[in-house]
């Protein structure tokens, strides 16, 4: 074997047999190192695929025993059905919501009838408040949990290898619809709160509503005459 020098004459020099043998040994050692590394990579890949399969089976089993109403991310029709149901119930709540403040009657406490019905604002708020925020919070939480399950599935190569290309595209479309539905849910909640602000909003610095017949002296109320909140003006009540 010869090796070239860097001079202008470009002459070739012979290398010794020992040096040639050393180079061959280094090359063979390099091939062996590459072969061992490839073996480690194959073992790691096989182990990763096995773990992905076990994780997919575990996720399927946990979904079966939870029965939490969340759709399975590898079935796009199930996710679309889930979205349609949530849209329907949210719209139904918005269309059939009742302003319970219309039933408020503060005068119901101004009676000695033991069978009276307390319709003051505080009582009506406790008994008729529909807690719309809790329902929307539950829906949005379910949307977010579904997105997390979709992301976990997309990261699982073993799971994705079992679905067709068309199904993958449907899963991506369903994920986009869920993201848009989260924004639409906030819009519906905002519209419902603004539409009935007296039901869902509480003023932080509300001005007290004094009964008629109240005059003010030095910014303090002073009551003169009978209380107009009572059914009989001649009866002395606690408002005076």
From TrEMBL:
Ranges for domain IC97/Casc1 N-terminal: 21-195
Family membership: Belongs to the DNAI7 family.
Protein name: Uncharacterized protein LOC127565731
UniProt GO MF annotations: beta-tubulin binding; microtubule binding
Organism, scientific name: Drosophila albomicans
InterPro entries given in the database record: IC97/Casc1_N, IC97/Dnai7-like
Lineage: Eukaryota, Metazoa, Ecdysozoa, Arthropoda, Hexapoda
Cited Pfam families: Casc1_N
